[in-house]
Amino acid sequence: MASAIHPASLCLFVPTGNSSTNLFFFRNRSRIILTQKKCRVGVSQHKRVISCCSVEPFPRRRICRRDLALVVLGLSSVSITLPFSATLADEELKMASFMDEINAYSYLYPVELPSKKFLFKWVESRKPERYSSAAPLSPDARLRIVSERVDIIDNLIISVTIGPPNSKFIKSTDKSTWAAKDVADSVLSDKSALRVTSSQRLAESSVLDAHSNEIDGERYWYYEYLVRKSPTRLDQESIYRHYLSSTAERDGYLYSLSASTLSPQWKKMGPFLEKTANSFRLVSPTEEYVPPYKDPWRFW
């Protein structure tokens, strides 16, 4: 006999008894733009432009629904063996482009390793939506998820959040003076569903590296971190989620992409997530763009 949990866009069936197989079903309401090219996507003068670029290497409506997905991803890691080795990071990787015209940003994400006939299994768990109606990550609703996609088989999550800077860490309005570690702390201090202080939220995460880079006149801050709350345990070893993030500022708000997997899979999946984090770009707004400060009362 099976029990079923039905979040807004995710259905999870967990067989009981001695069964060792979990079946996961998603309803994909994706409205994405796919381009099988290793290129950056931008918008200029109301036209989509795809142009190849070199990227600086990385030195390294409901909260309960997202938390459930994270738990499922953690549990599914126990029995998964990836069909490729870490050396494939340098292999030709096919990536697709994603454009969110509502919030005016883009990024690339991996879709296939042709030589190994390996396909990523992405599902858009949160379609793009305006900041005012997006799901909050903390009780004060400062930081919100405006889009998210998951590969539940390979334990991957790519999410984009928007929120104002935390004045505890970012005290100046001149973003050219912002330190990468301060930007990382600002974002992470608001990234928790628990009713705790920003300092307690920050303590859940460990920033491993942080740096910044200017691309096409826009400053981007990059940081790598672990999230230590509620780790999955396997053979007495704690398993955490390992993240790479990229953040940029526009209209007084921080736009952040986070790509993550579980720590045991980092050597295999980390290089692919690095490409995604490095590809994140704010693009020129179109008529579809909705600034985060517009109509804060509107939730649809």
TrEMBL record:
Keywords: Membrane, Transmembrane, Transmembrane helix
The keyword S-adenosyl-L-methionine appears for this protein: no
Segments crossing the lipid bilayer: 68-89
Domain called PsbP C-terminal: residue spans: 95-281
Biological processes, Gene Ontology terms: photosynthesis
Any one Gene Ontology molecular-function term assigned to this protein's record: calcium ion binding
Recorded superkingdom: Eukaryota
One cellular component (GO) term of this entry: photosystem II oxygen evolving complex
Protein name: PsbP C-terminal domain-containing protein
Organism: Acacia crassicarpa (northern wattle)
Organism phylogeny: Eukaryota, Viridiplantae, Streptophyta, Embryophyta, Tracheophyta
